[in-house]
Every structure is written in C-alpha cells, then in structure tokens.
Design a protein that fits this description.
Blueprint (H helix, E strand, L loop, with lengths): L6 E7 L3 H12 L4 E4 L11 E3 L7 E3 L12 H6 L8 E2 L3 E7 L2 E6 L3 H6 L5 H13 L1 H8 L13 H17 L12 H10 L9 H16 L4 E2 L4 H13 L3 E3 L12 E7 L3 H8 L5 H9 L5 E9 L13 E6 L3 H12 L9 E4 L14 E9 L8 H11 L3 H4 E7 L23 H5 L16 E3 L13 H15 L14
Parallel strand pairs: 1-2, 1-10, 2-9, 6-12, 10-16
Antiparallel strand pairs: 3-4, 5-8, 6-7, 11-14, 11-15, 12-13, 13-14
C-alpha cells in the first residue's frame, strides 16, 4: 500500500467525521498528516452519493440530519457556515405521526411546541425549559470526554440545566417515565428521539439521548446541510489539504505492517478492527477489553425515489426535517424490545427524512430522495422494503403511489459501505449508560489504543455516536500532547488558516 521508506508525523486510518476531525486538528498543529480510507469515497457517516436509482439524484449514505451541526464544540469552532456550508433548520425539528389523530410536532420554538400539546403542554414546558435555558451545559455534558466536568456547568444556568438533565434522566429512563404526561402525543414525541439510541427503553441511555437531542431541537435546531451531508465532509477535507495533509482512498489497512512510519496513529475504526490490525502488539488487558466490547442492535436502510412529497395524513408532518415513524410510546417500546430479542418487529421503529423539505435543490427532474432507517436485529439479512412501505402507509396513506424506485441495504450489508457498522450497528457499539462512560473500556485514557502512539478516535469512544467530530478532536489533542509535546490545541476557525 505504502512505500517502506515513507514517513509522516501522524497517520489517520478512517475518513469518517471523527477521523477527519483528528486530521484537521493535527494538520493545523503543523504536523505532516496522512489519511487512509478503505472506501472509494471520503466521509464515512457523512457522504452523499448517486445510487443509480434516478439520474443525478444524491442520497445521503448514512447521516442526513445533523442535530449536532451547530452544537458540537468542534464543528462550532470549525465554523461550517463560514466555509460555505449552508445548514438549514426546518420549520419543524421533528415530528411524530400518530394513527387517527394529529401528530406531535417539535418546533425550534419551545413555547410553540408546548402550545400544540394541549393538556400536556405545561408538562413539556416544565421538562424542557431548564434544559433549553442551560443548553450549553447540557451539550457540554453530552459531548464531553465523560472524564471531566465541563466549565459550562459552572454558571447559574449551567448548574440548573445539569441538575435538571440528571433528574429528567432518572425520570424518563426508568419505570417512572409515564408519570409526567396524561396523553399520548407528548410521550410519543419524546420517545421518538429516544429511539435514536437503538436499544430497549426505558433506560438511562435512551433518556439521555432523548433529552440531549430534544434540547438541541429547541435551542440550536436540527439542521440539514444544503447539498447533502457530503458538504460537511468536503469542508473538512479542504481544510486538511490546505494545511498540507494528504488523503488516500481505497487504502485498506489490515495489519500494522502495511502502515508507513509515524509517531502517532489514530484510528476511526471499531475496537475489533484495531485488534485485527495491532492485536499482536497490544497490551493484553487492552486487547481483552476490546475483544469484549459489545455491539448493539442494528438498522437497515431503505432509500427511495419519490415522485412527490410523502402524503402524510397530518399534512403538518411534511414540514419536519426528521419524522419518527413508530406510533405511540408503547408501540415503539414494544418494537425495540422485539428487536432486542432477535426478532423483526411487524411495525419497526423508523427514522424518515425528506431533504427537499429544507433543500428544494435536492429534487431532480421531478424526483426527490427519501432517506429511511428501520431498526432490526443485529446481522439481519432481510430486505425490509415492504415492511418500511407498510409502516409509512399507516401514517401516510397513498405513500406507495409516489414511490418510483427503492433500494434496501440489509443490516448485514451495512458494513460494506461503512466498516464501523458491524452487523448494522450504526452506533459502533451498544448504547448503555455504562458503555457511554466505559467506552470502549474502563480506563482513564479512553482513546489509548493499547500500543504506544496508537489511539482510537471513532464513535466507539466518548462522547459516542453522532456527526460531531468530538472523538477525533479529543484523541488528536491527546496525541499532540503525548507524542509531540504540543499542549495548546490549534485554532479551528477559517480565519486561522495558514
């Protein structure tokens, strides 16, 4: 793959958002950086490609909506808008359609959301208001390294927000989760975002996911990048190249012997992949911990080409950037329990997004893409296209009539376009409260790869899944200090370009 005499300061393996964030950080510190990506295209979980379903139509391969696009400290400092990436916030952050009744709608405006929840509006306001007021602290806790208390907590609003976050997690993550609300709409609206954790609920992990994403929906918004997720990747890649970094695609790494010489190696991979590459040189305890690392339930993806918008029974759902399709809280909890037991749910928990809601330019020749994920057992080989169509039809009668083409990627095949999605686990590791802290193992330095100079920087490390770049940023900063004696993190903004 690479010449034996080749040498770099740092090598990054894997060009997903975290690998690219690590490369940006290292290159801006003045290091010579090489990025190796096994896929033919860069971006990992943030790519947009033509799938051959309709000429010129781009589909988001993994992520489509970016709740952390404004909130991530790394992406905020990197300043995507200043680099020409337009992040548009939809009129409705997310929606929860329900059969035979109006949908639940979460607006960027908390008061407008509460006003639409009827008798449960006041309860929603009491739950979310302290979190939104202390959003900086909530985000810092959710996106921190889970080893230190963020400075954002040490302010009056921050302390109240952090305390409210902890209390709400205990409520919504336990059997007490139904005590707050009297109707079906508000709990369904909250459970829809909890199912992003792809695990059984209620649990502290699903509650934390729901409360963090819910806070972002009412504070920063859930934006979609114009042109697709690839726009984020392209901005990161351009910055790496502007600072002298090199990127190579189609560069599969299966052993440390294939790597060029470097003082630091950062891996945007799973712990399993790191063992395959470095296992013979790893400290035994680290290798054993990585081999025990557990992967979670899965998602299968179905991409659609539509001749028009989804005909939601409640037309207001059409203004949402994200639609959680699963019905009531009880129905979604039952579906996730079924999947956890290794069976397919008749009515699976699903995420749906039509990017043309905020980006009309995504429509080509009267055809528009529709992005969907459905939760399935890990390793499922089932083509779930018909199941997904039937589930959407429950809340959008006539959906089948606007479907022009479709393509399913079963869970077992998800790793073919992203090696980190083992068995279809799009979170690169089971989401539990323990594993959000001990991720990927119990250690003070969670990015330590078990070999001097080797670091893990993927979603399998804190703060966990999502397009945020924080894992790459944290790991790169450790590498800078430990391997190069650089203690001051480099500036990330476009004005800091060399």
């Amino acid at each position: 793959m690479t010449g034996a005499r080749e040498q770099h300061d740092a090598v990054v393996v894997g060009a997903g958002p975290n690998g690219l964030a690590a490369a940006v950080t290292l290159a801006r510190a003045g290091l010579g950086v090489l990025v190796l990506e096994g896929q033919p295209t860069l971006g990992g979980g943030a790519r947009s490609l033509e799938l051959g379903l309709a000429p010129g139509l781009l589909h988001d391969v993994c992520s489509a909506v970016h709740p952390l696009g404004f909130a991530s400290p790394f992406l905020s400092a990197f300043d995507l808008p200043a680099r020409g990436v337009e992040l548009r916030v939809p009129e409705v952050s997310y929606a929860q359609p329900l059969e035979g009744r109006p949908a639940g709608l979460a607006y960027p405006d908390l008061e407008k959301t509460a006003a639409g929840l009827g008798a449960d509006g006041a309860a929603w306001r009491r739950l979310m208001n302290p979190l939104v007021a202390g959003a900086d602290a909530v985000v810092a806790l959710g996106l921190g390294d889970h080893r230190s208390v963020p400075r954002e907590v040490f302010s009056p609003k921050g302390l109240l927000g952090a305390a409210a976050f902890g209390a709400a997690m205990l409520e919504q993550g336990t059997r007490a989760w139904n005590l707050r609300f009297t109707g079906d709409v508000a709990p369904a609206l909250l459970t829809g975002i909890a199912m992003h954790a792809v695990t059984t609920m209620p649990s502290l992990a699903t509650a934390g996911t729901a409360l963090l994403l819910g806070t972002l929906a009412h504070s920063h918004g859930w934006p979609l990048p114009v042109g697709g997720s690839q726009a984020i990747t392209d901005a990161l890649v351009a910055d790496i190249r502007a600072h002298g970094g090199e990127l190579r695609t189609g560069a599969q790494v299966t052993s440390w012997r294939e790597l060029p010489r470097a003082r630091a190696y950062l891996f945007d991979t799973t712990p399993r992949a790191l063992v395959e590459i470095w296992g013979e040189r790893m400290r035994p305890g680290v290798r054993a911990a990585f081999e025990r690392f557990r992967y979670g339930n899965a998602a299968a993806k179905v991409d659609f080409v539509l001749s028009g918008p989804v005909p939601w029974a409640d037309g207001r759902v059409g203004a949402a950037g994200t639609v959680h399709v699963g019905g009531t809280r009880a129905e979604m909890a039952a579906a996730e329990a079924t999947v956890a037991s290794g069976r397919h749910a008749e009515h699976p928990a699903m995420l749906v997004s039509d990017p043309t809601v905020t980006d009309p330019g995504r429509e080509v020749g009267g055809r528009r893409p529709l992005w969907t994920y459905a939760h399935v057992p890990a390793g499922s080989t089932l083509d779930i296209t018909e199941t997904v169509i039937a589930q959407i039809e429950r809340f959008a009668p006539g959906f089948r009539d606007v479907v022009v083409a479709s393509q399913c990627i079963p869970a077992a095949q998800m790793s073919k376009h992203n090696a980190n999605y083992i068995g279809g686990d799009i979170a690169a590791g089971a989401i539990t409260m323990f594993r959000m802290v001990a991720r990927p193992r119990v250690a003070w330095n969670e990015y330590d790869g078990g070999v001097p100079g080797v670091y893990l920087c993927s979603e399998s490390t804190p703060p966990g899944p999502g397009v945020h770049g924080m894992s790459g940023w944290f790991a790169a900063r450790r590498a800078l200090g430990e391997r190069f004696g650089i203690r001051q993190a480099p500036e990330l903004g476009p004005d800091a370009a060399g």
